[in-house]
Amino acid sequence: APHPRSCKARTMAPPKRRREAADNEAPEEEEVDARRSRRRGNVDGDDAGPRGGGKERGERRQSPPPMNGNGNGGGRRGEASGSRRAPQEPARVDLRDDDDIDDYNANDQDAVQLTQQYQSQLESYDTQPVAQKVNVEEKNMLVAEVMRLMLFSQYKDNAPVQRSKISELISKLCPQLKRNNLAAFIIVEAQVKFTTIFGYEMKELDRVQQKKTGANRVAGTSDPTKEYVLKSMLSAKSRRRWVDQPGELAMRGFCITVCSLVSIGGGQMEEELLWRHLGALGINEADEAHPTFGNTKATLYKLVKQRYLIREKLSGIHAGEAGEKFGYSLAERAMDELGEEGV
């Protein structure tokens, strides 16, 4: 008799046993096929089932998962997908405080009044020939270039822009427009644009002239030079809360301290005495690597460039006998932004 496990024995088995063996081998082959399909990424592991694996498995494969509130499939996969795609709400400005509301309304009224002031100045040019002869394209181009000059100059070193520089820019861009009051007309247009679009005031200041001594002394008085700076139209409280950066506070405190020392000294102070007072505060003249200001001498000169201070040669009894001496006095920006009451 053949061995019961041999192929011949299975071939010679009765038909009933052959059917039972085929039924037992079919699920194993189907599981192998399912595993191969899962490797190829065609069938999901949770929904995969044997081919023809019964009516219940077929229905589970065809029925879609329940939908949640976000429109994603239910279960852990749907919840994870919904949490990743949920948009974040933007930060809201809380103005429920009465002080914030009053400050916002007062600042808005000041901005409206300032805009109306510049708008009335612009309307005064409607009857002048300079406004009637410049076409709209030329006017818009010149206004845009002046605004660009102001923005980049303030961003670069926060120094004022002199009116002569603006006039040179206008003459360079449009040499054929050699008309009187053209620069003044374009500047007023830029001032209106700054207030209505950027929330800045393009303020005009009178540049304080240095006192000429000796051979540089000029007889008589000349008209002060005009210059322009950009100032935020927000109130001080709103700027501190929403605009000012922490890194700017140290430089601002240094500027206020220096201007206060000069003002307390009578509006003018010798350079040596000023450094003596600053040294008492831990800011030495010879320090080139201060942890906050770096080169302290360059930081003080920056205030001169930004027109908070004027550095000039001293004469008379202040000059002394040991070479030349220099002193500092308050410039136009210190008087405009701080003033004696602010100091």
Task: Lay out the secondary structure.
Blueprint: H1 7-11, H2 15-40, H3 55-62, H4 75-85, H5 98-123, H6 129-133, H7 136-157, E1 161-162, H8 163-173, H9 182-198, E2 200-207, E3 225-232, H10 236-243, H11 249-264, E4 268-270, H12 271-280, H13 296-305, E5 309-313, E6 326-330, H14 332-337, H15 339-342
Helix pairs in contact: 5-9, 7-8, 7-9
Commentary on this structure:
Helix 5 (98-123) runs antiparallel to helix 9 (182-198) and helix 7 (136-157) packs across helix 9 (182-198). The chain is mainly alpha-helical and 343 residues long. The chain has helices at residues 7-11, 15-40, 55-62, 75-85, 98-123, 129-133, 136-157, 163-173, 182-198, 236-243, 249-264, 271-280, 296-305, 332-337, 339-342; strands at 161-162, 200-207, 225-232, 268-270, 309-313, 326-330.
